[in-house]
Automatic annotation (TrEMBL):
It comes from the Eukaryota. Transmembrane segments: none annotated. One of its GO terms (molecular function) is catalytic activity. This is Endonuclease/exonuclease/phosphatase domain-containing protein. Residues 102-218 form the Endonuclease/exonuclease/phosphatase domain. The lineage of its organism: Eukaryota, Metazoa, Ecdysozoa, Arthropoda, Chelicerata.
Amino acid sequence: MDHKSSSFFFRGVHLNLNHCRRASSVLGRDIVHFNYDFFSVNDPYIFYSSVIEFSTTFRNFFHPYNPLAGFIIANSNFKVFPIYVESSIVALEIGLQEENFAIISIYCPPSKDLKENLDELKKLLLDLGDKNILILGDFNAKSRVWGLRDGDHRGDLVLEMAEQFDLLIVNKNDSNPSFNGPQGISWIDILLIKNINIERIQNWTIEDKITLSDHQKMVFDIVPQNTNPF
């Protein structure tokens, strides 16, 4: 499978699967069809504690017990080193073309105190220091910074963390909602970056394609350092 392209460095995607097996099957096909390089997954479908429905040719990184967040690496050219693997947060170092990135997938359930998840993430950010960092996750937090609806206390906590650690929020507040379920629509899936020029994140979007999950895919490209914006 060729994940090389002259138009972008590599393509990342994030999706909360809402623990749906059919959504996992759709995602597995999309990874192949759209040549995604890596995928951040929240709330995956599991069978006997294993994440299934994805090709065995992909490298999967999930906690072995009750995984709530993790990564699928489809690009065989990536050098991958696990940094931190827990149930609700997974961090990897990936390398491509002599540049390394720390990518983090985090899921913050609405029923859990967000501060616990953020404290875990903050400790990880301190350890990562000045690495190039991307954070992808469903924070179940609302703010007009990344959505069209009024914010809440959880959104304030995310903004405080972003300010504390000099994180940039890539989301656009006029995007499609990332969640559309029985509870209504909301903007709760976020991409944050650190030590990466914002102009390198291109074609960021919340898609409106069928996923069979209550969530939509967040898709973006990361281009080389000296590439001009499209």
